[in-house]
Amino acid sequence: MRDVQLARVAEQYGVATTYEDWRGERVSVSPDTIRHVLAALGVDPERPVSDAGRRLLPPAVVVREGKGPDLVLPEGSRSTVETADGSVLPFDPGLPLGVHTLRVEDGGAEHDAPLLVVPDRIEPSALRGNRRLWGLMAQVYSVRSRASWGTGDLRDLAELADWGARDLGADFVLVNPMHATEPVGPLEPSPYLPVSRRYASPLYVRVEDIPEYARLDPAQREGIQRLARPLRERGRTADLLDRDAVWEAKRTALEVLFQVPRAPGREAALRTYLEREGQPLVEFATWCALAEEYGSDFRSWPAHLRDVEARAVGEEALKRWPAVEFHRWLQWVLDEQLSQAQITARSGGMDLGVVHDLAIGVQAGGADAWMYAGALVGGLHAGAPPDEFNRRGQDWGQPPWHPRGLAELGYAPFRQIIGQALRHAGGVRVDHVMGMFRMWCVPEGADPSEGTYVRYDHEGMVGTLALAARRADAVVVGEDLGTVEPWVRQHLADRGILGTSVLWFEQDAEGEPLGPEEWRTDCLATVATHDLPPVASFLSGEHVELRDRLGLLDRPLSEELADSEARVERWRSLLVELGLLDEDVDPVTDPASVVAAMHAYLVATPARMLGVALTDVVGERRMQNQPGTSTEYPNWRIPLTSGEGEPVLVDELLADPRTVARIRRTLGPVGGGQGRML
Q1: 370 and 433 in contact (C-beta within 8 Å)?
Q2: Which residues pair with 453 in a beta bridge?
Q3: pLDDT tens across 260-300, in order?
Q4: Cα separation of 62 and 64, whole Å?
Q5: Does residue 357 register a pLDDT over 80?
Q6: Which alpha helices (DSSP H) does 93-172 contain, by range?
Q7: What is the pLDDT of residues 475-530, one digit of tens each?
Q8: pLDDT, tens digit, for every residue of 166-177?
Q9: How far is the C-alpha of 249 from the C-alpha of 550, rounded, in Å?
Q10: Which of 10, 145, 322, 424 has the smallest C-beta neighbourhood within 10 Å, fewest atoms?
Q11: Quick one: how far is CA 299 from the chain centroid?
């Protein structure tokens, strides 16, 4: 009887008691896991379901544009809507897009709930008329120049985008998440594990592009250049990236520039930015200032500082106000340089420009977890269930959104994060987009396989994303790889959100590659992702040998190699059959020809967008990230290099016509004479 009661409560709060695994088999979730997840959500599993969550209005009401409200109110109640601009309107179809407040009077009591009026479908202008777009995909930190300080920065991104647009005719450049990292070392190398998604990482600042740099006297400029020189020297090698050294030097230089008096126009621009950002930026900067003393995990801070709304936090912020101001100023500098990167990309001829990547979550002790505590769930980690490639499941160590807590805030934290991602962009890629429907949640300390799904109101999540995209006239690409409910992909397509299709995964039940005509239309088509090896490595089997050395294989190396070789041969045969690859080409000795053929194959699909990894363009062989490892492999610390292991700098891409000619040959029909898809 208790298990029946537990199942009822779990259903009431969207906690799965069973799920279908990657093999299509139904799996039961243990009662202990269900109880732990419910407790983390603030629910007493022993509470009678008839009393659970009873309220007149849901946490948030979501209405699609032009459609009537799908909400039954008590007979005799009176409802009104206070819009974002203060107008009062009836709760009827025709409400303006935006986030409003629904008020219902019933029996002398007044009930309020956030009301989101969202687009039914987004139709960005760049994709209208059945247009197709192609672009480069790059990990910005790995794309260096002779002028950057050992890691790629926003000037490097701007120059890469300009080159891609003018010389290759690219429509966009899709980049890694550029979210905020720790204010003090050691810095987390993974761009997918930030301290905040609301703000960006000053590691990407080009120091010399800050206007106040020109106002320094010669001795001060020389002092800053002394910091940069050893980093630039290292940046011209294939050595692993050293974020800590780069940030330590940049931090010192930025502190000098922060003290330089700003011209009146600059000061006015700063004040305008600070006013626009308001309290969220103050809170983020306060977290940074406190983290400099107490560490980057607020859960280990003194107890009186763990609540962002505590009076003690405000008092500490005032004591450290110069540090708070410094971190607010840093975000303004970043905002200006992010803006300039997008302006440069569009001026060069890109239809979209920069497409930013939104990570699935944040560090459990970071700034967002502190700022948005009521909207996140402590005691649970987001992850993924066991699948074909990760038999033990995945635990990403990130707190998931609280379904009710986030909705009660009108999805404000999510809106702020999406708005920031699109502020200076033509689009956004949403990592693990299925997480807006349901998230695999693992109790803290449990094995990743011992989790369960927690469901969200996808109308609220997807609607919030669509609202931000409509306002920005932006493209949205959802990363929907892995275990996905079939209806989820259809729902996203119906809303105008593209999926992600990866060549290596597009095969039938027998493992045979699909013909290009069998691909879906509403997707970003790519050969691989940042979690897969570059083409040259895949073709040679190097990635299998690497996984063997790292102890990641669960069967003999010979079997894995045989499977990998068979997969490569199946694709080689199809490319030859389609007339895209010469039959005499050896994939191991001539990977560039296979890369060109694979992208020609992608062009033959109906995909609306096509992404070309910069690593494949230059012949890189090393993986950026090896799933299943932490310190065993230098994840996210690999600089861009050629197939011979030589560093590839932005300067070379810009200046060497032989490089451009070779890249055009590699791109084949993607980058033709005018650089557009043929």
Answers
A1: no
A2: 440
A3: 999 999 999 999 999 999 999 999 999 999 999 999 999 99
A4: 7
A5: yes
A6: 154-168
A7: 999 999 988 888 999 999 999 999 999 999 999 988 899 999 999 999 999 999 99
A8: 999 999 999 999
A9: 33
A10: 322
A11: 25
Token pair for residue 69? 């409200």
Q: Phi and psi for 104 in degrees, rounded to 5?
A: -125, 125
pTM for the model: 0.95
Summary mean pLDDT of the chain: 93
Residue type, 525: A
In this structure, of 134-148, 381-395, 495-509, the range with the lowest mean pLDDT score is 381-395
| Amino acid of residue 301 | W
Dihedrals φ, ψ of 304, to 5°?
-75, -5
Identify the burial level of 591 via C-beta atoms within 10 angstroms of its C-beta, where 0-12 means exposed, 13-18 middle and 19 or more buried.
buried
The residue type of 495 is: R
Place of tokens 């990760």: 390
Return the SS3 of 88: strand
3-state secondary structure 327-346: HHHHHHHHHHHHHHHHHHHH
What tokens appear for 210 in the block?
């800050």
Counted residue by residue, the chain has a size of 678
Q: Which helix (H) or strand (E) is 109 found in, with range?
A: strand 109-118
Measured distance CA(328)–CA(269) in Å, rounded: 13
Q: What is the per-residue pLDDT for 141?
A: 98
Residue type, 601: Y
Q: What tokens does 127 get? A: 């994709």
Backbone angles phi, psi at 57, to 5 degrees: -115, 150
Give the CA distances from residue 644 to residues 44, 98, 381, 612, 673, in Å, rounded to whole numbers and listed in that order. Answer: 60, 53, 40, 20, 28
